[in-house]
Each structure stands twice: as C-alpha cells, then as structure tokens.
Amino acid sequence: MYLRKFKTRKKSILIQTCISLLIVVLVSTVCFILAKFIDYKVTALLLLMAVSLIAILFDIIPVLLSAIWTALLLNFFFIQPLFTFHITNSEDILMFLMYFIIALVNAVLTFKIREVENKARDQAEKENTIQLYSTLLNSLSHELRTPIATIIGAIDTLKENKTKLSNQHQTELLEEIDKASIRLNRQVENLLNMSRLETALLKPKLDWCDMNELVCSLLPSTKSPIFEFLPVDHLPLFKLDSGLIEEVIQNLIHNAIQYTPEGTLVNIEVKQESGSCVILISDNGQGFPADEIEFVFDKFYRLANTKTGGSGLGLSIAKGFVTAHKGQIHLENNNSGGAKFTIIIPAETSYLKNIKNE
Predict the structure, then answer these.
(1) Are 189 and 254 in contact (CB under 8 A)?
(2) How far apart are CA 323 and CA 329, in angstroms?
(3) 133 CB-near residues (< 8 Å, 6+ apart)
(4) Rounded to the nearest 10 degrees, what angle do helices 167-198 and 242-259 cross at?
C-alpha cells in the first residue's frame, strides 16, 4: 500500500526506464567503489535486489531491461578480466549465465506476483465499494422515502379535503410536512457533506467565532432530552470554520435527540485548554455498549437494537469536519452513567470581541 502512493506505473515507459537505469547505475557504482571489500558474488546479490525493487515499482519492459543491464555490468566491471565482456574462467561463465537466468526469472516472477496482488487488492476494493453503496442505498431508501411519502400524503390530504378539514387538522398536517421536510433536508445535507469529505475537497475557511453565541443558537427547545449550556464569561474568540463546527454540534445534538432515553439531561460545555477549543457534550443516559464505541464514527454504522431512523452518517461527518480542523473527537462512557463526546480543535484565540466585525 505504501509503494502504491508513488503511482510509479502511471509514469511513461521511458521515464520508468530512465529511473530503473539510475537505480542500477547507483547500486553498481557503490559496489565498484567497495570492490576491494566485497566479493563480486556479493555484488551479484545486491544487483539482484535492485532488479527485485524495480520489479515492484515498474512495468515489465523496464524490469527486463534492468535484468539485462545488471548482467552486463556484472560481467564488464566485476568479473575477471575487468573492463571486457570476455570471461576466461569456466566457473565465472557458469555464474554469469546463472545470474542472467535468475535475474530474468526473478524480474518476471516479482512482476507477476505484484500483478496478482494488485488484482486481488482491486477486487477487494471493488467489493468494498459495492458493499458500501449497497449499505448506502438500503439505508437511504427508507430515510428518503419516509419523509417524501409523508410530505406527499399530507399534501394530497390537504388538496382533497381542504374544505372538510378543521383548522387544527390542517395545522397538524402542515407540522408533519415541516418535520418531514427538515428530516429530508438533513439527509440530503449529510450526503453532500459526506461527498465533500470523500473527494477531499473540504478546506476549512477559518474566521473568528464566538462559541458561546454559536452553541446558544443551536440549542433545541425539546422537553426530552433537556439541553443545558452555560455561556463561559471571558471565553476568547476561536479562529474556526463556524459552518463546519455548527454541523459537528448539530449532528451530536441530533444524535442525542434520536437515541437518548426519555428524561435524559444533555450538558454542553465549551472551554479553552492548551491552545485548543474544547467542546464537551455529555449526558446521563444509558451510554454506549463498550464493544461498539470504536465503531460509532464509521460510515453507515448504527448501534444494534436502536430504533429506526438515521443513516449512520452523522457521527462520521462530525469526525470528518473535526479532522479537517486537525482536531480530534473522542467518545467515552461516564463512570456515573451516560456518554461523553470530547472535541479538541487547535485554534488561534483572541479576546478582542470587535475583531468579528473587521
């Protein structure tokens, strides 16, 4: 996987050949300089290693040429008599022929092994992609269809029975449409956000942010769970992408609304610590199963035995946005019960409130 990052096979054959020649020349030069200290048989082994390395990196043509080059260099510079292709010793002739054959076979076999590994890896990636999209479609088929069906059903009812429905009934239908629209909008936003993360196009636009103000604007007015946040006096401004941080907090709040038990108290705290903005979101609910905590930030992962609703993208997106700020997000269970999310984002700070208006 590490060598794959160099994408050497995407280079032209000419460039691959030149790089291969350079590797062979470098190894041969070092061996020639050290010829007084190492036997030419050791040099043969080192040149074989160079051919193997080239076979891992490049296509078959540069690999075969490297095998031929190393054989000729071994003959010309290292086998007696030096600086000639003539070999007088029958043992050296046999050794040269064996080297030439082994170098070619080694080059071809190494190349073929790499080809098989690449095909196996590509097949595994293809299967993972198919499974990922299958999971996505299975999840979203319900998550998108349900609010759409609710909206269409409510609108049809209003159209067909407009004169027969009471004002209260009409208001209830409109509230259903509003809730379904919000749910649908959230799913679409999650898909767009995940797309931004997957394509690596996400770059935070840093600006001064008042976290007290931001968190207060996001607190929902739900009766259960109950959200508590105490603004911190003298909390500095943080240089963050307020839009991304807003999405992070919204996703954690939405997660609490969806999955915490009735009567849960959710506490949100923001503080400055060691040059970082620290956001703590904790509750006194049931917490998370200990063996599932390490998976909750994975895409499309949903806890076992949870109620329907949600695509399993919210926490993954939250982690992606925090990581985009070069920060960290952790989840742990409280000793007294419930769960706690800890977000730590390195950020510049300023106590000049009027800097927001610059």
Answers:
(1) no
(2) 8
(3) none
(4) 120
Tokens 């003298």: give the residue.
234
Across the chain, which distance is largest between two alpha carbons, in Å?
111
Task: Kindly tell me the burial class for residue 88, based on how many C-beta atoms sit within 10 Å of its own C-beta (0-12, 13-18, 19 or more).
Answer: exposed
Q: In this predicted model, what pLDDT tens digit does every residue of 16-69 receive, in sequence order?
A: 888 888 988 898 888 888 888 888 788 888 888 888 788 778 877 888 888 888
Give the pLDDT score at 134.
64
What is the layout of strands, in order, in the sheet containing 207-209? 207-209, 237-240, 349-350
pLDDT in tens, 236-255: 999 999 988 998 998 899 88
3-state SS of the chain?
Answer: CCHHHHCHHHCCHHHHHHHHHHHHHHHHHHHHHCCCCCCHHHHHHHHHHHHHHHHHHCCHHHHHHHHHHHHHHHHHHHCCCCCCCCCCCHHHHHHHHHHHHHHHHHHHHHHHHHHHHHHHHHHHHHHHHHHHHHHHHHHHHHHHHHHHHHHHHHHHHHHHCCCCCCHHHHHHHHHHHHHHHHHHHHHHHHHHHHHHHHCCCCCCCCEEECHHHHHHHHCCCCCCCEEEECCCCCCCEEEECHHHHHHHHHHHHHHHHHHCCCCCEEEEEEEEECCEEEEEEEECCCCCCHHHHHHCCCCCCCCCCCCCCCCCCHHHHHHHHHHHCCCEEEEEECCCCCEEEEEEEECCEECCHHHHHC
CB-based contacts of 58, cutoff 8 Å, min separation 6: 8, 9, 16, 19, 20
Of 236 and 6, the one with more pLDDT: 236
**227 — pLDDT class (breaks 50, 70, 90):** very high
Cis peptide before 81 (omega within 30 of 0): yes
> Is 40 exposed, middle or buried (CB count within 10 Å of its CB: 0-12, 13-18, 19+)?
middle
Q: 276-283 and 265-273: which strand pairing?
A: antiparallel
Phi then psi for 23, rounded to 5 degrees? Answer: -60, -45
